[in-house]
């Protein structure tokens, strides 16, 4: 993406770096089942930039610019739009999948954007009424509760095992990392920049959130 | 065997690839079974005056309760997964036959869900129902399978007659491709 | 206006710039022939490279084109350029389509003669293979004379003579209808002087020839008679004019009409295919690819198979394509390809595993970047005129090939014996000959290679070889250009309601190998069908001779015959019949052959084959067109002047008129 003032190379770099960040967050979202924090500034920033690029393309179209340049710009615009939309879609899908769990977990709830929170709030009654209409309403009174624990004390709609392993790529040096906090034997490994490791998600999560690593 | 119906229901969904018809009667049978079991459970507890110390009574009570819970869980999982499949199919090629396989409640759920997604799109001002696949090219060559009438594109109105080939911008025709009116040739 | 070869790129670039500036789509109208489909593919790929949006409309007749055009005009007026592939050169496009002056029509059509109005119009661009220098030498501009209608029918300057005939045959109502036709069809007279070139010198000779003049006298009565026409129509400008004109002017007019008549009578094709023209365009703008060369080869072969091109011209084009091929393919030969023809003859036809032939594998996929992948090659090869040889058994393909059917009459026992004798001379056991080509003994194939042309000469078949190309895939399988063309043609078979599908199937078979293989199976059935029909028709009883022509009538058409006749395969079908008649010497002397087939309750399809360009043929054609013109109210002209659809009942009148020549 090029800003109009192409002399400002630092700004250019910044924008292109952001595209890479957006892509990384999209991959993060796709690779893990957990809800991740919503990247507000990225999304809104890009939404604005897309509009700006669109207007650029349209104004340039009136002048006799080379069609190929125009097409390249449009193509780039399309790609970034796709990234944005896929990011939002993936997040929505995760919300839908983990709706019941989310309903109980306040921490993750705080990681949703305002619109997503609204979405989740409205989706929950939709689904519960559907359940009631189709099934629960036909049962005897005492059995109609939804979030009953079953025999194994599993509440409905649990997230998958949060300790599954994920592949991690270190963008910065992560230093000594304890691989398994729950085991009595502490083992650490030293992770340098650019390495690919396979870690438990619970350990990796911390590094994801501060962008020193990303999922593959 | 108790719980067979529910298992069969889940299994049926598990085996099919897209959305199979809604098994109304199977659900009804499970409900009946739960009712039966519940009645039996209540009867049992009344007989024993809520005293579960006797292992026979306690065991039976727990057994009934577990079966009821399991049935409930199966059916809820069935319903929820049908909803997920419905949601997924919505984003792929619109298959008209899917509508036939839905229960009345599911249809209502679908309409409400679509509305909800639309509201969300409005709020973030990004249309999340488009661009389902990474864009490989700006323009697409498509063959028209059914008459679509005249559509507005960025370059003006285009009349899409059946059995013609068009080369148009992806963004203009994406929805029609999803709905099955157009077929990309390459 | 004519676009000579050197100006192809200029016109195209002009169109490109306009389209890119205004973002207008380009409309592409294509007919249903293999050549048209190939050219369409090349042109659409060129448009795709520039991201110019386009719309492709297959058309089957001029009536459909007209309707489509007017509908498009109503619904969307934001287009500027439209391309016409293999249609439009012989008709007055502007008048037919009533296109506005702001629209430009680019025509790639090899049919001739050009409608003179197209030549002089500023909105119609006719792409022609001649370069500036040779074209200027050969033909100087032929300005629009104003004597022909949009389809190129020329009314004789005074048709009183013919009208008298017509009056006796038709009722009053029809006569009145015809008068209206005349006043509608003729334009304001613009008498022009024009020069004929070397090519048309013969025409001058004809006109000067006394014998022909006397013939013309019969048709074009003297000036005095013209002044006393019985059908005086105040609306007819020519009649008014003729009364007022001086004898000298009238003589000029007569001369013009004669020349126009003769000009429009010589229906034929240019010595090129439109796919070659489009390939040349692609090459001129530096966007030619190997797949374009292959498409050009297919288009050329399509024309050659239908006898649109003479052998000499065909060979010239082939050598041109051969040099072009070298631009895209290295000529270093691998161990397999020491000598092209053994590879061609010996290779199997089908891929080793059909599942592997996905679109990307085999034809490189459609779309912008699509092309022949590195693994498949196009190889020049001397092919035999045996259709679908590699997809059939050798014996069957011999028995059904056009050359053998016409020469040996293989439907007869004697013919079959001759073929068996040929095989015996070659030393190929019948069992091997009846094996599919893939599984035929390699020894037999080598024998064929060395001895087959010689053996054929022994039986009087001298013209068995022709230069062509084969496409060799990475697994060793190959398709010859002729076979691909036949397979695609078989997809174009008319099948009732679903005729649009036939076009798209043909289009798909350019990309998808599976569709092509299906097509080759269908083509085999069509070959068999040809032989059956020829067997029924090629005897003295079925063909009726008149003084100047012969004709064949089908009073009832089976479904298959109808499907054949209504598609572009009618010509190869009639060619097979004509060649059989010629080769079997069923009649002495060649005359033009007229075909009439009752394709539906109300209509007869009428077309002709003139095997040579002799004087008598030309006169017959002129007479045919005049007769058609007389009955224009009852005739549908759909495919230019090559095929006519005559109302039921009127075919008898037509025959009677022709017989009275």
TrEMBL record, chain A:
Q: Where in the cell is it found?
A: Nucleus
Cellular component annotations (GO), alphabetically ordered: GINS complex
Which GO biological process categories is it annotated with? DNA-templated DNA replication; double-strand break repair via break-induced replication
User: Can the keyword Cell division be found in this entry's annotation?
Assistant: no
Q: What does this protein do?
A: The GINS complex plays an essential role in the initiation of DNA replication.
Respond yes or no to whether keyword Cell wall biogenesis/degradation is given for this record.
no
By its UniProt entry, which InterPro entries does this protein fall under? GINS_A, GINS_bundle-like_dom_sf, GINS_Sld5, SLD5_C, Sld5_GINS_A
What keywords appear on the UniProt entry?
DNA replication, Nucleus
CDD domains assigned to the protein according to its UniProt record, in alphabetical order: GINS_A_Sld5
Instruction: Please spell out the taxonomic lineage of the organism that makes this protein.
Output: Eukaryota, Rhodophyta, Bangiophyceae, Galdieriales, Galdieriaceae
* Similarity field: Belongs to the GINS4/SLD5 family.
Q: Report the residue ranges that make up the DNA replication complex GINS protein SLD5 C-terminal domain in this protein.
A: 161-213
Pfam families in UniProt: Sld5 (PF05916), SLD5_C (PF16922)
Q: Where is the GINS subunit domain?
A: 73-133
The protein depicted here goes by the name DNA replication complex GINS protein SLD5
Automatic annotation (TrEMBL), chain B:
- Spell out the protein name for this chain: DNA replication complex GINS protein PSF1 C-terminal domain-containing protein
Q: Which GO terms describe its biological process?
A: DNA strand elongation involved in mitotic DNA replication
Q: Which PANTHER family match?
A: DNA REPLICATION COMPLEX GINS PROTEIN PSF1, PARTNER OF SLD5
| Lineage top rank: taxon | Eukaryota
Q: Return the GO cellular component terms, semicolon-separated.
A: GINS complex
Q: Which organism is it from?
A: Galdieria yellowstonensis
All residue ranges annotated as the DNA replication complex GINS protein PSF1 C-terminal domain in the record = 138-182
Record Gene3D superfamilies: 1.20.58.1030
UniProt xrefs under Pfam families? PSF1_C
| InterPro entries, sorted | GINS_bundle-like_dom_sf (IPR036224), GINS_Psf1 (IPR005339), PSF1_C (IPR056783)
Question: Which CDD domains is this protein grouped with?
Answer: GINS_A_psf1, GINS_B_Psf1
Automatic annotation (TrEMBL), chain C:
Cellular component GO terms, alphabetically? Answer: DNA replication preinitiation complex
Which one of the record's GO molecular function terms can you name?
single-stranded DNA binding
Q: Where is this region: Disordered?
A: 170-189
Localization in the cell? Nucleus
Give a GO biological-process term: mitotic DNA replication preinitiation complex assembly
Instruction: Give the Pfam families listed for this entry.
Output: CDC45
Claim: Nucleotide-binding is one of the keywords in the record: no
**What InterPro entries does UniProt report for this protein, alphabetically?**
CDC45
Q: List keywords of the entry alphabetically.
A: Cell cycle, DNA replication, Nucleus
Instruction: Write out the coiled-coil annotation as residue ranges.
Output: none
Top-level lineage group: Eukaryota
Family according to the record: Belongs to the CDC45 family.
Give the protein name, as stated in the record: Cell division control protein 45
